[in-house]
Amino acid sequence: MSPSAEPLSFGSRLLRLLPSLLVFLLAAVPTQAEPEGAAVPDHARHPLQIVGIAGQQLIPTVQQVAADASFGWLNYSGRDASVRFEDEDIVKKMRCTTPGFFRVTANDLEAPRIKSGEIATLCALEPGEYDYRVVLDGNASEPLLGKLVVGGR
User: Fold this and answer.
1) Residue 46 lies in a domain
2) Which of 94, 118, 115, 114 is nearest to 104 (CA)?
3) Residue 141: which CATH number?
4) Burial class (CB in 10 A: 0-12, 13-18, 19+), 101
5) Which of 47, 41, 32, 53 shows the shortest CA–CA distance to 118?
6) Per the domain annotation, does 116 fall within a domain?
7) Residue 7 confidence (pLDDT)
8) In a domain, 112, yes or no
9) Sheet of strand 119-122: strand arrangement
10) Does a structural domain hold residue 35?
């Protein structure tokens, strides 16, 4: 560290480590085999990529997503959050029959209430770029803006 550089605060260091920590924690979650004949939700059939909601930011703001991946938002903001896609054709671009934690309202998708410490998942989407916004309860400032970039095969 150069003499003029200030040491990072604990919060800044934690935010830098959050993506790696999330991958580690999700990899450590034990899985159970589904009973034969049990219905498996569409979003559980694909690899899962995560966007973190921490403090007043999204980690990462722009998430590159594999074409066959489902994705989720892990909320560690300390407040309830909602995620909303307002693309009028997004419902037609879903590669599943059930949108996971999200609900369909008119032509958009919304995860209405993700409590702190919870995750909301959404199934795979057709390749393209999808803008979304996250609103934190009690936050009078602007919503957090994010983008998913879903790759082609």
Assistant:
1) yes
2) 94
3) 2.60.40.420
4) buried
5) 53
6) yes
7) 65
8) yes
9) 57-59, 48-54, 70-76, 119-122
10) no
Question: Alpha-carbon distance 113 to 120, whole Å?
Answer: 9
44, 31 in Cβ contact below 8 A? no
CA separation for the pair 126, 70 (Å, rounded): 11
| Amino acid 52: pLDDT | 95
105 burial class (0-12, 13-18, 19+ CB within 10 angstroms)?
Answer: exposed
Tens digit of each residue's pLDDT (9 = 90 or more) over 76-129: 999 999 999 878 788 888 887 777 778 887 767 888 889 999 999 888 889 999
Residue 62 near residue 68 (C-beta atoms within 8 A): no
* Tokens encoding 124: 């795979």
DSSP for residue 60: S
